[in-house]
Amino acid sequence: MAFALLDQIRSIFDGDPGVRKVADDPVLSAELLMLFRMILADGTVSESEMVAFRRICKDAFGIQETSIDAVIEYLNEFGYETNGSQAIALFRDLGVERRKQLAQHMAEIAKADSQLADSEVRLLRRTLDLLDISPVDVVKPEE
User: Fold this and answer.
1) What are the tens digits of pLDDT across the range 73-83?
2) Measured between alpha carbons, how far is 75 from 30 in angstroms, rounded to an integer?
3) Other beta carbons less than 10 A from residue 71's beta carbon
4) Cβ neighbours of 9 (radius 10 Å)
């Protein structure tokens, strides 16, 4: 209880910890922007896509649920400064596993609403080409 209160007080003075994490990591910012581009690729934002986005933020990047709305707001405010090509450029020099992770997250968002639109497929295909990733690498083995 005391730690939660201290975190709230600190966030008042320091800003939201999730937003700080995203703002301090250009690659993370770029990935989240690419995930948003995938959410918007078919022209609609579905609840299932947002649930998948929130799950990725929490599970893959350790962004707490209480920070995700602030992170989304931050991306909306500052994301216009980065286009898709610029975001992808940050990934080109990263290891293949990290590039695969971006592609897998994008595919997860695209499939979240159970409808794979042509525009989503095109965005994913272009991203895979730019990242030099095979479509086979995007398919996660069933656990």
Assistant:
1) 888 887 766 77
2) 10
3) 25
4) 10
